[in-house]
């Protein structure tokens, strides 16, 4: 047991961690107008504290003492312009208080705050709305906050107090002044926030925002009065689907996710049979700010018989890490340790079941409400695509869910759309990977495909380079990069065959230009060949048939995972006037020499790269220009 020791000063002053100070400053001067959210945040913390206690009490029942039922009490005090939020949950020790209410633990928060600060007026308002603003949100409405807390099973109680302006104090609290167990938060409301002493206002907000937290909430207006219950703490997920309204789902989603948008998809089901569990899962409309934070884990909560166990159980695969909600099962023992959870075969089976149901629900939405599904895809598609790489079993299902930008137009297309419009003789699904859509659309490698009306998927997410390498066939067609290997284009008829028959001399000239280029560029390229994929550009680079596609190679090199690069193949368009002219300049070997190097540099620039030898490039360019201008 911890007690206040004599050496501890009566009141210790602490300075907030720099990030807390920044967050508080933002909160107080926030452009975010919906201050009501502080109530949801404090109630949600109170409910979490009650759930943590329930969990710890499984191993140590004495923690509950003679007060086993979780509750949250709101006390209004109009005379003193105060509101009190009290719970009989786990409480906080002195050190926990300093840790929890003086620092920011969550990863990604700093980056998030930087984004908000950089964009105060515009995006900021929405961004902060997406962000679980947490305990510190109470400084939006209060100019003094006191947190009195006693940890379950301990005697000592502590008072944390702050005006939110840079520092806080922690002092021991007389037993008589402290809650018997749990936390009491007193907000001294500022002038603009006096509405929060109105019972009508508070009751309305609580019912609307926190109506389904799994702990009953009561309210009392005057000291000595009997508290009135405003929500009953029934777990929404235990109700049958037909008894829950869309508004109730939305409100529950907001509570469980800390996001302030509407769910784009709600999946609620009870599995019976080998394993019994209930899932209530939501796909958000907007992306959380830390979606691509490497530390971000799934945020589904695990309950066992309505007792919250952990939100760290990875109930869905990483590529569904945007899904929020919970799984409640009676098949696991209540005293399962958090460490044992990861290896539990039951949980493995549940994970599979939940994943399948979510993917099936997405498939249904794609069919019945294509517009909403597309919005989902634009927001979370690049994350779902990670499953194409990771989840061997579900690759084909995920390919069915995937949508792509293609050369066929501006919108997104499914692979089914692609195949419906594919050429009869087409054996592959063609793609081109790169870093931006604009760059891809302008790629010379696409020309021959465009000219023959063959659609090409344009892949711009870094993950695309990886999954596409090992993608399974889709409806019997394999994936093939248009910037790698032979273009296979000869098999497809061109609409109007414009290349005129070349004279034997012209053919010989092109052949010797190719031979010259091979010789001069032998350190840069593995081969120089006549192209059937170019129609407008003079040259382009492609990767050899085997090995990495060029884009993937660049990514791996950038990440330091590949020391040597494969030499690309330079393709030359023999029908291009420039190539014809260079090939014809047989009497000017110096010019031809400069020209083949410049052609190679041009192909690199078209690929988004720089010339390998900038000085040599500049010199050749100057020589060719001078000659052209007669200088
Ligand atoms: N009523 C409470 N009882 C016990 N601990 C609390 C209470 N309120 C806050 N805390 C502690 O303070 C921490 C910080 O709370 P805060 O709301 O800022 O963040 P969070 O709850 O961890 O994250 P989020 O807001 O995303 O849920 C909590 O994790 C908890 O440890």
TrEMBL record:
Gene3D superfamilies: 3.30.230.80, 3.40.50.11260, Heat shock protein 90, C-terminal domain, Histidine kinase-like ATPase, C-terminal domain. It holds the Pfam family HATPase_c_3. Residues 555-631 are annotated as: C. Coiled coil: none annotated. Residues 1-338 are annotated as: A. The keyword DNA-binding does not apply. It is found in: Cytoplasm. Belongs to the heat shock protein 90 family. PANTHER family: HEAT SHOCK PROTEIN 90 FAMILY MEMBER. Homodimer. Molecular chaperone. Has ATPase activity. This is Chaperone protein HtpG. It comes from Rhizobium paknamense.
């Amino acid at each position: 047991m911890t007690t206040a020791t004599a050496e501890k000063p009566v009141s210790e002053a602490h300075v907030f961690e720099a990030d807390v100070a920044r967050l508080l400053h933002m909160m107080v001067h926030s452009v975010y107008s919906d201050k009501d959210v502080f109530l949801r945040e404090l109630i949600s913390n109170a409910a979490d504290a009650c759930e943590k206690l329930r969990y710890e009490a499984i191993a140590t029942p004495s923690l509950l003492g003679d007060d086993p039922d979780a509750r949250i009490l709101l006390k209004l005090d109009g005379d003193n312009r105060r509101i009190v939020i009290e719970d009989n949950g786990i409480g906080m020790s002195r050190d926990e208080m300093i840790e929890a209410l003086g620092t920011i633990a969550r990863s990604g928060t700093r980056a998030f705050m930087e984004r908000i600060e950089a964009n105060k007026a515009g995006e900021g308002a929405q961004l902060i709305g997406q962000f679980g603003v947490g305990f510190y949100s109470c400084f939006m409405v209060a100019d003094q906050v006191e947190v009195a807390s006693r940890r379950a099973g301990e005697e000592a109680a502590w008072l944390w107090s702050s005006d939110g302006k840079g520092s806080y104090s922690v002092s021991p609290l007389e037993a008589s002044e402290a809650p018997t167990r749990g936390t009491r938060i007193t907000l001294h409301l500022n002038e603009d926030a006096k509405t929060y002493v109105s019972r009508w206002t508070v009751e309305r907000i609580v019912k609307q925002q926190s109506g389904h937290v799994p702990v009953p909430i009561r309210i009392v207006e005057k000291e000595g009065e009997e508290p009135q219950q405003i929500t009953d703490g029934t777990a929404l997920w235990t109700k049958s689907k037909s008894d829950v309204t869309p508004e109730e789902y939305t409100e529950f989603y907001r509570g469980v996710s800390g996001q302030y948008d509407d769910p784009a998809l709600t999946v609620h089901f009870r599995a019976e049979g080998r394993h019994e569990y209930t899932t209530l899962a939501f796909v958000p409309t907007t992306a959380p700010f830390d979606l691509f934070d490497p530390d971000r884990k799934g945020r589904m909560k695990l309950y066992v018989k309505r007792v919250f166990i952990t939100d760290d159980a990875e109930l869905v695969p990483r590529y569904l890490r945007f899904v929020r909600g919970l799984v409640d099962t009676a098949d696991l023992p209540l005293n399962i340790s958090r460490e044992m959870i990861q290896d539990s075969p039951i949980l493995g089976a549940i994970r599979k079941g939940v994943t399948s149901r979510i993917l099936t629900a997405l498939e249904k939405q794609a069919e019945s409400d294509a517009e909403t599904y597309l919005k989902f895809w634009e927001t979370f598609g690049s994350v779902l695509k990670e499953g194409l790489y990771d989840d061997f079993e579900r690759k084909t299902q995920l390919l069915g869910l995937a949508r792509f930008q293609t050369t066929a137009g501006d919108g997104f297309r499914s692979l089914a759309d692609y195949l419906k419009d594919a050429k009869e003789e087409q054996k592959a699904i063609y793609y081109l990977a790169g870093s931006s859509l604009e760059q891809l659309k302008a790629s010379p490698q696409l020309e021959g495909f465009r000219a023959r009306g063959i659609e090409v998927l344009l892949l711009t997410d870094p993950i695309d380079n990886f999954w596409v390498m090992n993608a399974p066939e889709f409806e019997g067609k394999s994936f093939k990069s248009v910037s790698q290997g032979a273009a296979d284009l000869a098999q497809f008829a061109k609409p109007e065959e414009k290349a005129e028959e070349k004279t034997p001399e012209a053919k010989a000239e092109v052949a010797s230009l190719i031979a010259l280029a091979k010789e001069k560029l032998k350190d840069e390229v593995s081969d120089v060949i006549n192209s059937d994929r170019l129609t407008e550009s003079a040259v382009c680079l492609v990767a050899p048939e085997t090995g990495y596609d060029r884009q993937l190679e660049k990514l791996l090199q950038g990440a330091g995972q590949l020391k040597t690069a494969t030499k690309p193949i330079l393709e030359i368009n023999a029908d291009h006037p420039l190539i014809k002219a260079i090939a014809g300049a047989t009497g000017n070997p110096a010019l031809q020499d400069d020209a083949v190097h410049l052609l190679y540099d041009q192909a690199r620039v078209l690929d988004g790269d720089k010339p390998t030898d900038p000085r040599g490039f500049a010199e050749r360019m100057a020589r060719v220009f001078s000659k052209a201008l007669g200088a």
